[in-house]
Amino acid sequence: MKMRIATKLMLGAAVGVLAVVSVVSVAAYGIAREGLAKEITSHLQSVAQSRAAHVQTLLEQLKDTIATTATSIILADGLRELASPDADTAAVVHRLNARLAGLLPAEEGFDEVFLLDREGRIVASTAAARIGLDRSTDAYFVGGRDGPFIKDAHLSTATGRQSLAISAPLMDEEQGELLGVIVARLGTAELDEITADPTGLGNTGETYLINKYGFMITPSRFLDDTFLKLKVDTENSQACLEHMEAIRRGLLAEEHEHEAMAFTDYRGVAALGVHAHIPETQWGLLVEIDAAESLAPIARLRSTILLFAVLFGVLSLAVAGAFARRISGPIHELHAGSERIGNGDLDYRVDVKTGDEIQQLAHEFNRMAAALSESYATLEQKVADRTAELQKANEQLQSEITERKRAQEALKESEQRFKTLVEQAADAIFVVDMEGRILDVNAQACQSLGYGRDELLALNIAEVDTEVVSHEHRKRFWEKTKPGETVTFEGTQKRKDGTTFPVEVHLGLLRAEPRRTVIGLARDVTERKRAEDQLQRYAADLEKANEEVRQFAYIVSHDLRAPLVNLKGFSAELRSALEEVCSTVRTVLPQLTEDRRQALTRACQQDVPEALQFIDASVTRMDSFINALLKLSRLGHRELTFEPVNVEEVVRTTLDALAHQIEERRAKVTVGALPEVIADRTSMEQIVGNLLTNAVQYLDPDRPGEIEITGERRDDETAFRVRDNGRGIAERDMPKVLAPFRRAGSQDVPGEGMGLSYVQALVSRHGGRIWCESEPGRGTTFTFTISNHLQKGDHHA
Amino acid sequence: MKVRVNTILMLRAATGLLPAILLLLPGCGPRGPADEQLERLSIAFQTWVGYGPLYLAAEKGFLAEEGLELLFVDEELDAARRDAFEAGMLDAEAGTIDLLVNKRALDTPVVAVAEIDLSLGGDAIVAAGDIQTLEDLVGRKVAFARDDVGETFLSYLFHQAGLSLDQITIVPMSPDKAGQAFLDATVTR
User: What global pTM score does this model have?
Assistant: First the structure.
C-alpha cells in the first residue's frame, strides 16, 4: 500500500498517542479504583468494628446487670420462703413484686422483670397477670439456671413486642442449690438505636444485625417489618455466618481482615459491604452501602479520563498533521529537485529553509548537484587517466606472471635435480605414511627388492621390512619423533623372491602435518655384515688360540717342574754318594798307581763336584724360568678391580723403594703432573715398577742419569711416558724388547726377560698400548696408555 | 421420608446406647440433584464429636450431590432450638433420641429422617463412696444438665427402680462444670 509520508507520520503519531493515552488512562483508573476500594473497605470496616463493639458492650452490661440483681438476698429469701409449705405466699409474692420493680425500673427499657422458682413457674413479676405461668421449657429458664444468659431476640409471647430476655440463677449460697431464676425482658430499642445511626453511611448505607440463623433482628433502612421475618441471604450474610462458624471451629481467627464485598443485597441492589461478629449471641453485624453511591467517584473519574483521552487524541492528531506537513513539504521539494536533475537539468537547485536536518540535506543535495555537474565536465579526462593506470597495472601484472613462471621453472628444475639425486642414490629410499603405506620409492629401492615401482607403491612397508613396526625402538620413533630427529637401526628386508638381506636404515620425519610422513634410507649391508662376521670369527679363533697358549704354558711349566725337582733331588743324592765314594777311594788310594791315584783324586775333588754344581745351577735357572712362565700365564687369569688410582702417588712409592740404586748411580728423577686414572691399583704398581726399575738399571754408568716421568690425558686414553738417558736399545733389538724371555743388550743385569712382557699384558688388559722409542747411547722412552672408558667398580677376569 | 423411631434403640438408649438422629421439619426434604440451585437449610446441634460426619459430608460434596447446602448453627440449648424451629428460622436439628421424645412430648412438629450415628457412649452415675444403689441417692444432691441426655438417662433409671426425680435434690449443671463440683463435694454425682 502506497502512503504519503505525511499520512504515515500522522498515523504513527496517532497510534503512539493513543497507546500512551490508553495505558495512562487504564493505569490511572485502575490505581484510583483500587485506592478507593481500599478506602471504602477501611471505612466500612471501621464502622462495623465500632458498632459491633457497641453492641457487645451493651450485651455484656445486660448480663452484668442481671447477674448482680440475682445476688439479691431479699429475692433469695423470698424464694426460700415460698418453697416452704407454711409460707404466707401472697405476702411474700407482694414483697418480691415490689422488690423486682425497684431493681430494674421500666424507664431503663425493661418491659418485665420476673422470678421463676426452680421448677420454672413464675412466682413473682412486675406483670402480675403472668404469675403462676409455667415457663420451665423457656430458654431463659433452661439457660438461666446455669448462669447469666441472654435469650436471643424474639417476639414476646406476653406482649408481642420485639424483645430480648436476660436471666440468671438465684442460688442458695449455703447449700449450693438452685432457688430459682430471675428474668428481665426488654425491647430491642437500644440495639436498634446503635444500628440505625446513619453517621458515615451516606444516603444508602445501613447497619443491621442478623441472628445466627441469618434473620434480621434490627430494622432495615429500606423495608418495613423485617424483624425475624426477613432472612438475609446475600453473599455478605453468608460469608458472615460461614466466618462465624469457622471461628467457632477454630479454622479462622476472631480478628480477621476481609475485603469489602461487592454483591447484590437483600433488595436486589448492587452493594458493597463488610461484616463483623457479636460473639456473645453469635449475631452478625452487617454494614452495607449501595455500589452506585460508594463507587460514584470512580464513575466520575472514568468519564473525566475518557473525555480527556478523546480531547488529547484529537489535539495530538491535529498537531501531528501540521508537523507532518512541515516535514513532508521540503521532502517533496527535494524529490522534485532530484527528478529534474535526473532528467538532465544539472543546474537546478532546491530551495528549502526549514533550519533543520532537512535544510542540511537540501544543502548537501545542492552541493552534490554542483559536484555532479563539475565531475561530468572532468569525466573524460578521468577516463583517460584511469585507462593509462589500467595499462600500467596490466604491464606490471604481465611482468609478475613472467617472474612467477621463471620461479616455477627454477622450482621444477630443482625438483628434477632432487628427483635425479634420489633416483640415483646408492641407498634405497622409501617415503611411508603412519599406516605404513609406501608413498614413494627410488630406483635403488626397486632394484634391491626386485619389485617394479608400481608394485612397491601398492605394498605396505611391513611387507618389505617385517621388523619395521615390531621393534620397540622403531615403534617409538614411528609415534613420537619430531621433525629434524633421525634414528638409525639395523633390520632385514625381504625381496620379491622371498630372500632376505640385512639393511641399515636411517629414518627421519619428512612431514608432520597434515599427516605424518617418514622417509627411510635403507642401505644393503650384506657385505659389511659378512666382513664383521668374519672379524668376529677371527677374534674368537684368536681368543681360543690365546687360551690354548696360556693353557699350554701352564701345563708345560707345571709338568716341567716335576723332572726338575727330581733332577735337583738326585743331584743331592749324587753329591752325598760322591762323598762316600771319595772317602772309600781315599782309603784305597795308596794301593793304586800314581796315575790312577791322581785321576781319581781329580775326579773326586774337581770334576764330579764341578759337574754337580753345573747341574744345580741349571736346575735353579730352569726353575726360575718356569716360575716366570707360570706368573705370566697366571697374569692372564688374575681378576682386575678398577678404581681411581693416583698415579703420582704410585710413582713416588716406587721411587722411594729404588732410592738406594738411584743414589748409587747419581741419577736425577723428574716427576711431572700425572693424571688420575680408573685402573687396577696392583697392575699400575707393577707397570710403573717395571718401567722405572728398567730405567734405573739400564742407565749409562759413564754419565749422570736423568729420568723423567710425564702424563697426559687425551680424549679416549691417558698416556704416561718414562724417558731415560740410559744406554738405549739397538735398532735390531727393538722387536724383541716386549717379547717374553728376550733380553736386549749386554747381559750384565740379572732377570729373566719377562718384565716388559708382564707390562705389555697388563697394559693390554687396561685397554691400552705400550711402545718404545730408543736411540743407542742417548736413551729410551717407554709410553703406555690406559683407556678412559674403564668404569669404577668394574671387574676384569 | 421415613421416621426412624426404633424401640430397641430406645431401650438400649437407657443402658448407654444412644443413637443420634437427624430431625427435620415436615415438608423440607431435600430436592433432587437435578435442581441446579442448592436447597439451603440451617441445621443446629450441640457441639459433639459425633456430628463430625456432617461437616465431612459438606466438605466432600456429598450434601451438594443431594442438592443440599447446610448452614451449621451452634445452639446448645434445646429450648432455644425449639424457639427457632417455631419461628421458622431453623430447618433441621441433629440430636440424641431423647431429644425426639422431648419434642414429641411438647408437640413440636418434628420428624426423624435419618439415623446418622450409633454411639456406645459411656453414660454413668458417679457417686460418693457411701452410695451403693440408686436408692441411696434419695435425699442427696445430684448434678446433671437439665433438658439433656443426662436427665433422660437418670429419669429412665429412676423409673425402672420405682423412684422419682422429686426424691433427690437436682443441681442443674452442664457436664463440664459437674466434674469439678463433684470433686469439691458440692454434689453427689
Answer: 0.49
